[in-house]
């Protein structure tokens, strides 16, 4: 039985409605879960690997990552603060209990799980599924279902959970895993490499334009568990794929760690468009609870004229730490980063991108929109690096910050390293307070103060929203409105 | 005098922290009437417009305002707007990234919702908006452009009247809408206003120039000086002010003040 929060005896009907509006995905699914006891050592890793019946090379790869991680230290440079994390206190694997061999088709998936995803607006039955979108649904540590798999397979597009890919396409996994984000890249990437549990895998073959949006919906449900997912997307020569990612978690008073790694590889003339709408539980208005979203996302434009675009709308999590980046290796390749990051109440975000220009005539665009409200702290951190071989490289960066109220903060750290003599690099930045005049003007036309703020903020984010697939742009607008609730008046 | 007043301002006093600006202003406007307010720079004309529309920078320190029988000063900004009070701003505001049509539909729907009317959908709204754009000779392309962003001064003013035409308020204040307009734009704006004139709808037109009032014939003309209405008359007063300036009004005033002592 699912059990919507919060408990009725503590709140009046009105407060109940308000709380629901605040974070409507905060419910918990009551389902029997198989959970490893808290703690992390080599045994834990072997156990995870064994449960997934992984080949020994992968087990060894995980163990090497773990040993590397033990020698590393938590990064201290991000402009965020939180108490030290006790890595022995949380569990590294939790999954809904399997009945028998595990579901072969949707009809065998636990109805309670189907209901959960339906409630989140992600119907998994293909009859009811969102038109034109294939979904991989990840619940805590495992993928529970993937829709439209057969239809995609008929075109040669592989779309499945990461665990399945390890079983069915080990050669592709082995070739590309860690090829963009090396195990030792950073503290959380190393941790992820050691303990990742599931995620999505995509391979689009040569010359194929993937006919539908692919998406993964991540749901954290279990208490006291970290989520460590791993996503690998490969677009072969001339291929195109648009991929979306969404995420939510129950409301809990404890912080939960989400440390994902996403690797994208685009070969000659391939294009990958990766969009995120991140709505992890942000904690309550006093900063209690919420997800620590410490994520490494990187794409490699390996081939000539390839293109990788990151679009992110970050409204959730108590702390966000992520820099979706592009390595522009192929000549003429293009990297793009479009970001909206919103911090309200006590949320903190340190986010941005790295554009590493290696190939000739490579181009990159960075559009970052930061919105801070309440006591929110919002940092843009970005690196544009033009390496010696990158003749004719160009970059355009625009970083705008919008402040709502007097208690929040916006910070911008753009780093620029140019090692050629003909690079064209442009950087524009602005910080403004939301205009009293603008709000007043809207109100004079009949809009409430809250609607006025939403309208102005949406206008501010326009350049980014227009990069999102249609349905997601609408979702993103709504989400922003909900996240801003209580920020004015 | 059988019809009740739409607007009744009595002895209105308003201030900002630095100083009092309106020192006891009274004005009664009947339904269907057009009142013009003229007066030197800094006399308090825009302040009156802002106070009537509920701008929070001004503190009301005395007097009352009734609108259609209700206590206007008790309502907040959006409540007044929804009740039908519209201001064509002297300096219209830009909202980047928000299309004019999107903004105006949201506004119209907020007004409709407050009246219990159903929302107007995007298609119907577009039909309505195009028709009203024609009225003020505004190019339809402005509908999809971000609100006032990069608009010329004249285009912004036209957009104000366009919004008025769509929202169909009961009472509209035009704060120097004619300033900076060329002859064609002035005619377009006037046409827009005249098309909206009706026995139910009243206007308060703030202007420096008689030429606007040639297009929009006012029923009454008032002179606002130092925070008070000091003289009222018919359309001929506007012509006289345009010709002679305000000096003589001041002198006349000093004379009567001296005589009454
Ligand atoms: N928000 C404000 N803060 C301070 N002074 C103001 C403010 N608004 C108006 N004033 C002052 O009040 C007087 C009247 O201004 P205003 O109403 O704009 O005049 P008008 O529109 O007739 O030119 C001026 O001296 C102006 O400087
Ligand atoms: Mg003025």
Produce the secondary structure layout.
The complex is a heterodimer of chains A (489) and B (261).
Chain A (H helix, E strand, L loop, with lengths): L1 E2 L9 H10 L5 E2 L3 E3 L6 H10 L4 H15 L23 E3 L14 H9 L13 E7 L2 E5 L2 H5 L4 E4 H7 L1 H7 L10 H9 L4 E5 L8 E7 L10 E6 L4 E9 L6 E4 L2 E6 L4 E8 L11 E12 L5 E8 L4 E4 L2 E4 L5 E10 L4 E10 L5 E10 L4 E10 L7 E10 L5 E10 L5 E10 L2 H9 L4 H17 L4 H15 L5
Parallel strand pairs in A: 5-9, 8-10, 9-11, 10-13, 11-14, 12-15, 13-15, 14-16, 15-17, 15-18, 16-19, 17-20, 18-20, 19-21, 20-22, 21-23, 22-24, 23-25
Antiparallel strand pairs in A: 1-2, 3-4, 5-6, 7-8
Helix pairs in contact in A: 2-3, 3-8, 6-7, 9-10, 10-11
Chain B lengths: L6 E10 L2 E11 L4 E5 L6 H9 L5 E9 L2 E2 L5 H7 L1 E4 L6 E5 H15 L7 H14 L10 E2 L5 H15 L3 E5 L7 H14 L5 E5 L3 H6 L4 E6 L2 E6 L1 H10 L2 H14 L1
Parallel strand pairs in B: 3-10, 3-11, 6-9, 9-10
Antiparallel strand pairs in B: 1-2, 1-4, 4-5, 7-8, 11-12
The structure holds adenosine-5'-diphosphate and magnesium ion.
The site of magnesium ion (MG) has 5 residues of chain B, from helix 1.
Protein described:
The complex is a heterodimer of chains A (489) and B (261). With 489 residues, chain A is an alpha/beta fold. Chain A has one domain (28-484). Helix content of chain A is 23%, strand content 35%. Chain A contains eleven helices and 25 strands. In chain A, strands 7, 8, 10, 12, 13, 15, 17, 18, 20, 22 and 24 form an eleven-stranded mixed sheet that branches. In chain A, a hairpin with a 2-residue loop joins strand 5 (133-139) and strand 6 (142-146). In chain A, helix 9 crosses helix 10 and helix 10 (449-465) runs antiparallel to helix 11. The radius of gyration of chain A is 22 Å and the shape is globular. The two termini of chain A are 38 Å apart. The mean pLDDT of chain B is 92. Chain B has a domain at 7-91 and 169-260: 3-Layer(aba) Sandwich (Rossmann fold). In chain B, the strands form three sheets. A six-stranded mixed sheet of chain B has the order 6-9-10-3-11-12, with helices on both faces. A four-stranded antiparallel sheet of chain B has the order 2-1-4-5, with helices on one face. A two-stranded antiparallel ribbon of chain B has the order 7-8. Chain B is of the alpha/beta class. Chain A binds chain B through residues 435, 437-438, 440-449, 451, 455-456, 458-463, and chain B through 53, 55-56, 76-78, 81-82, 86-87, 89, 92-98, 103-104, 106-108, 110-111, 114, 146, 163, 167. The structure holds adenosine-5'-diphosphate and magnesium ion. Magnesium ion binds next to helix 1 of chain B.
């Amino acid at each position: 039985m699912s059990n919507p929060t919060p408990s009725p005896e503590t709140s009046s009907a009105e407060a109940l409605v308000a709380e629901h509006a605040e974070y409507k995905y905060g419910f918990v699914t009551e389902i029997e879960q198989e959970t490893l006891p808290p703690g992390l050592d080599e045994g834990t890793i072997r156990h995870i690997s064994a449960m997934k019946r992984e080949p020994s090379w992968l087990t060894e790869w995980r163990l090497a990552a773990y040993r590397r991680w033990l020698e590393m230290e938590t990064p201290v440079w991000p402009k965020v603060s939180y108490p030290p994390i006790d890595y022995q206190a949380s569990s590294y694997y939790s999954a809904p209990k399997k009945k028998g061999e595990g579901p072969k088709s949707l009809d065998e998936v636990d109805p309670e799980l189907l209901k959960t995803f339906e409630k989140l607006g992600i119907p998994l039955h293909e009859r009811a599924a969102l038109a034109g979108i294939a979904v991989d649904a990840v619940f805590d540590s495992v993928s529970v279902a993937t829709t439209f798999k057969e239809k995609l397979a008929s075109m040669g597009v592989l779309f499945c959970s990461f665990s399945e890919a390890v079983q069915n396409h080990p050669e592709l996994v082995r070739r590309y895993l860690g090829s963009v984000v090396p195990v030792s890249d950073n503290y959380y990437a190393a941790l992820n490499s050691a303990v990742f549990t599931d995620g999505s895998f995509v391979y689009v073959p040569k010359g194929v334009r993937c006919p539908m949006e692919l998406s993964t919906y991540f749901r954290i449900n279990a208490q006291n568990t970290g989520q460590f997912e791993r996503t690998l997307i490969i677009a072969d020569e001339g291929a195109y794929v648009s991929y979306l990612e969404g995420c939510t978690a129950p409301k809990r008073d404890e912080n939960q760690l989400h440390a994902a790694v996403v690797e994208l590889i685009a070969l000659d003339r391939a294009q990958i468009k990766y969009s995120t709408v991140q709505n992890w539980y942000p904690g309550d208005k006093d900063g209690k609870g919420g997800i620590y979203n410490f994520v490494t996302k990187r794409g490699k434009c390996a081939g000539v004229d390839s293109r990788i675009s990151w679009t992110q709308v970050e409204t959730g999590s108590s702390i966000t730490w992520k820099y979706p980046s592009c390595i522009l290796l192929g000549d003429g390749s293009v990297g793009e980063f479009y970001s909206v990051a919103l911090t309200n109440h006590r949320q903190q975000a340190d986010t941005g991108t790295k554009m590493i220009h290696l190939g000739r005539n490579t181009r990159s665009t960075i559009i970052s929109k930061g919105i801070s409200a309440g006591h929110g702290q919002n940092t843009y951190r970005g690196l544009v690096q033009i390496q010696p071989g990158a003749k004719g490289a160009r970059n355009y960066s625009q970083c705008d910050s919008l402040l709502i109220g007097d208690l929040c903060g916006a910070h911008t750290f753009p780093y620029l390293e140019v090692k050629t003599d003909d690079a064209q690099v442009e950087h524009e930045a602005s910080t403004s307070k939301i205009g009293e005049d603008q709000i007043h003007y809207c109100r004079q036309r009949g809009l409430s103060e809250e609607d006025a703020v939403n309208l102005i903020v949406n206008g501010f984010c326009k350049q980014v929203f227009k990069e999102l697939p249609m349905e997601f742009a609408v979702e993103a607008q709504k989400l922003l409105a909900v996240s801003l609730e209580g920020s004015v008046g | 005098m059988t019809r009740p007043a739409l607007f009744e301002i009595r002895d209105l006093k308003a201030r900002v922290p630095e100083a009092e600006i309106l020192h006891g202003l009274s004005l009664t406007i009947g339904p269907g009437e057009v009142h013009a307010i003229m007066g030197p720079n800094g006399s308090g004309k825009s302040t009156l417009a802002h106070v009537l529309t509920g701008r929070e920078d001004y503190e009301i320190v005395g007097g009352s305002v009734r609108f259609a029988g209700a206590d206007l000063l008790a309502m907040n900004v959006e409540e007044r707007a929804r009740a039908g009070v519209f201001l064509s701003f002297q300096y219209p505001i830009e909202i980047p990234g928000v299309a004019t049509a999107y903004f105006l539909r949201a506004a119209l729907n907020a007004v409709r919702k407050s009246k219990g009317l159903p929302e107007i959908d995007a298609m119907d709204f577009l039909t309505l908006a195009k028709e009203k754009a024609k009225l003020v000779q505004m190019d339809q392309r402005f509908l999809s452009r971000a609100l006032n962003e990069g608009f010329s001064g004249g285009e912004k003013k036209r957009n104000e009247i366009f919004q008025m035409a769509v929202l169909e308020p009961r009472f509209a204040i035009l704060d120097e809408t004619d300033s900076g307009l060329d002859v064609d734009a002035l005619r377009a704006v006037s046409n827009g206003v005249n098309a909206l004139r009706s026995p139910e709808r009243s206007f308060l037109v703030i202007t420096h120039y008689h030429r606007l009032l040639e297009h929009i014939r006012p029923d009454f003309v008032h002179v606002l000086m130092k925070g008070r209405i000091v003289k009222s008359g018919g359309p001929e007063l506007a012509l006289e002010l345009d010709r002679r300036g305000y000096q003589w009004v001041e002198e006349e005033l000093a004379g009567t003040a001296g005589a009454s002592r």
